[in-house]
Amino acid sequence: MTIPKAIRLLLGFAALLVVIWSFVHVGLRLAGTRSDVGKINLTILHWGNAEEEQIVIKLVEAFEKEHPNVKIHRLHASNYDPKLKTMLAAGTPPDLFYLTYDNLEEFASEHLLMDLTPYVTENSPTGRHQAKWLDDFYPILLDVFRYDGHLPGQGALYGLPKDFTPMVTFVNLDLFQKAGVKIPYDGWTWDEYEGDMRKIAALSLPNSQPADRIYGGVINTYQEVLNNILWTYGGELFGKDGTDFRDIRLEDLKAQAALQMVKRLRLDEKTVFNATGIALEGGQQFYDGKIGCILPIGRWMVPRYRSIKDFRWDVVPLPHGERTVSRITTVAWTISARTQHSQEAVALLKFLCGREGQAMSARLGLAIPSLKSVAESDDFLTPGLEPKNTPLFLKEITHARRSLTPKEKEFNRIFEQEMSSALQIGNISTMDAARNIRQRWLRELDSPLRKEQAAPMPWGSLALLGVGLLTLLLILFVRCASRENLGPIDRANQRAGWMFIAPWLIGFALFTLGPMAFSLLLSFCKWSSITPLGEARFVGLGNYKHMLYHDREVVGQSLWVTVYYVMLAVPIGQAASLAIALLVNAKVRGIYFFRTAFYIPVLIGGVAMGTLWLKIFNNDYGLLNGLLRPITALFGATPPDWFGTDAKRWAIPGFVLMNLWTVGGGMILYLAALKGIPASYYEAARIDGAGRLRQFSSVTLPLISPFIFFNVVMALIGSFQVFTQAYVMTGPGPDNSTLFYVLNLYYQAFEYHSMGYASALAWVLFAVVLVLTLLVFRASRRWVYYEGLRS
């Protein structure tokens, strides 16, 4: 079909306008930055809700007004940790950024932070006070951000705390009153807590739905939360007052008493809300008035809870056993070691942590100011605003304690996996979980990757070797090509052909073959991606040894989850695609609408699809369980908790069910294959007396077998690379039931920064997929029918 000249001119004019607009837009942006020429530019990175972001904006504007020679570029990140670590890995870190205490050791050990000690021990930044400026900070908060190369708490200061919070208990006063429970403003023991939870849970109506049930409380099971509970029982997570990271004390009687109390309330008595899978979470249930209390939790929930209108609430101390302890959570502003403007950066740091900003944050209610003068003023105490018992936060400072955990992120992964199995699912006992944590963590510490004597990777020599090999290959290729006896025309055609494919060859070498070779080299290295590449250390087969022995539980589980998914998703998905293709191949009115409707879900991105299916799979109000509940009730059963307590059995079938929503891609290919079968073949089969089933097995299947082969190979490769759905919906899931192989690879590369180990995982996956694909190719000789190749 020929496009009319007028339409072609119109399209050309529109394209020209787009090009002109792009140049004008870029030019205006450049012109807008001219005012920054000659100024000192500082970049800051932070997180926070809209109110907290406005506080930072106001502080930045005030600082720029006082320092007209400084221009601040503010970056706000909702997904803060990946953003910061990406900037660190790229070698372009922000000058100032938020520092959490769990990142302190790692960042300080890698020399990514500036030592603030010489700068912040001066007098007040305004020069109006003679006393040491640091004296106004709570000492425990400063100690959190000190590090001497071994343990936090002493040595150089790497951050100024902007705010903090101890852990307390948020209580629903109306539910306590309705259950006849005294509000424990003066404190309570864990035994009293258990009794009160039973009384409040008894308020639930018989046979009430999960979304309508009343629970006594919520006990979160994160590592730091459980650690706080251990302390109150007199237990410790690690020996030597929590500083000996090889001496895990979870098997001690006091620690076991704490863990068994949590398990008893969550799983046995069910008086405490047990949040698993895709369902209502405890914080939302408390907000909705269905939870008596939630603990341990910090000040950050106050702004949200102030919008509650349906019930009264307040804060009370954490329950205690042998002692009263409240864990401190805090965040600091810090300065990158690579900043080019240290004096201006320090001035901005002091300003951001000064009285004005902390007073604004205090009035917002998110946290407690780190300056004592602000925390003890009405800016924080806010008379007349909830919670009424706000002074409790300051009182709890006397019982405050900071958490000490290994700088290796793998410990949290091991701890939360085993505790999830014990406290959320109930597959193992708390003692078994404690033993597993100890054994797996000691194996992790004894890994060859932990050895410090590894030699630096010789990148220079490897680069020269690579250039030499490429040069040799190019010379051999040119010589082989020149030996061919071609005429002038054939040689000209040959040159033209090489020129046509040269862009693809260059792109393949630079963006596919090159990265693959680099990844292979990295698989023999130990390298944290937040440090320069020159810091990589050669460990030989250390990554592969770590995979086979020290990390075998996680790698084995991720392989099993992926293989289980492939075994279900590939045959079911192909059968569904072919069945739908047969249906939409019918010659009926309106069939084009159905073809389009089946294909449209393929166009929806993985994140959007995952978000949609989160609603469908929700245990409490999801569409799927809503349809299944009346049916299962006939048999005295309930629908599965797909990604929660029933995840071991139903999580992977759930993902397979979700995958069926996108069978339209395979349907299109099968439909094209069906359209290509001559009608004469079916006529001949009918003349021979073949029915529909025999026609399908003897005519349709053989003739579309090349398409089946292609779809199976592509589905096989794609199924081994499942990532987005699990990342968006469940993460690793309870007891690692949805830890797909690529998801584990992602965590190793971008959560734990073990880029060398992640590269080794990637090459193992490549080998597995390659072998299976070759096996499918070899088996295809027996069942794939190529009409032009058969006699």
Q: How would the blueprint of this fold be written?
A:
Layout lengths: L4 H28 L7 E7 L3 H17 L3 E7 L3 H10 L6 E5 H9 L7 H4 L18 H6 L1 E2 L8 E2 L2 E7 L1 E5 H6 L11 H12 L13 E5 L3 H10 L6 H4 L1 E5 L4 H16 L3 E2 L8 H6 L3 E7 L4 H4 L7 E4 L9 E10 L6 H11 L2 H10 L3 E2 L2 H4 L2 H4 L9 H5 L4 E2 L8 H16 L4 H16 L9 E2 L2 H24 L5 H35 L2 E2 L10 E2 L3 H9 L1 H33 L6 H9 L6 H11 L6 H11 L13 H13 L4 H12 L3 H9 L4 H28 L4 H6 L11 H11 L3 H29 L8
Parallel strand pairs: 1-2, 1-3, 8-10, 8-11, 13-15
Antiparallel strand pairs: 3-13, 4-5, 6-13, 6-14, 7-11, 7-12, 16-18, 17-18
Give your account of this protein's structure.
The protein has 791 residues and is an alpha/beta fold. 55% of the residues lie in helices and 10% in strands. The protein contains 34 helices and 18 strands. The strands form 4 sheets. Strands 1, 2, 3, 6, 13, 14 and 15 form a 7-stranded mixed sheet that branches. Helix 11 packs across helix 19. The longest helix is centred in the middle third of the chain and has 35 residues. About 1% of the residues have low confidence.
| Cα gyration radius (Å) | 32 Å
- Which strand-content bin applies to the residues? 5-15%
Fraction of residues in helices?
55-70%
Number of extended strands:
18
Question: Would you identify the regions where 5 or more consecutive residues have pLDDT less than 50?
Answer: 123-131
By secondary-structure content and strand pairing, the structural class works out as alpha/beta
Shape: globular
Mean pLDDT across every amino acid position: 87
The largest sheet, given as strand count, sense and whether it forms a barrel, is: 7 strands, mixed
Oligomer: single chain
Distance between the termini: 39 Å
So how many helices?
Answer: 34
